Amino acid sequence: DQNKISTSCTSNGEWDSRLTRCKDIRRPIISCPEDIIAFAERNTETADVTWDEPTAVDKIESFDVPVPVRLTEGSPPGSTFSRGQHLIKYTATDADLNEATCSFRVVVQVITCPPIRYTLKAQLSCPNGYVYGSTCTFGCETGYPVVGPTSFSCEIDNTSNEPVGYWDR
To answer: Are residues 66 and 55 in contact, defined by beta-carbon separation less than 8 angstroms?
Structure first.
């Protein structure tokens, strides 16, 4: 009987039935990191991103009981993420199977330099495009001398709030 309020000890030293108990119906408390913005590494469109994994507790009376947390969507901390947005989701489940989830985004941005403008009779080669760390070489058709540098590398200017790419000659 689910509402039984008494039990008897049998001759073998065990209770004859389980007493009624209070079921926990509250979800655990879990918190995730804020969204993470990472910048791609030199000559790539990826970034290795890490974070502290969330923790969760179940409030039982005045106690905080730790609850297991598992990654339920996305890649774990320390993974390599490609350009764009990636959803990371964690779920905490307490002893009474109450669940709570939290999520955040890992956003990988690729620093690029503006396209190099050049004139007729010029030849430009940028084998890795215009991403941070790439190098472009510049030349002219036969009979036209190069005036200025013949190679440029895309570097990062970190002097503003958000890094930007610039061509270093």
So the answer is: yes
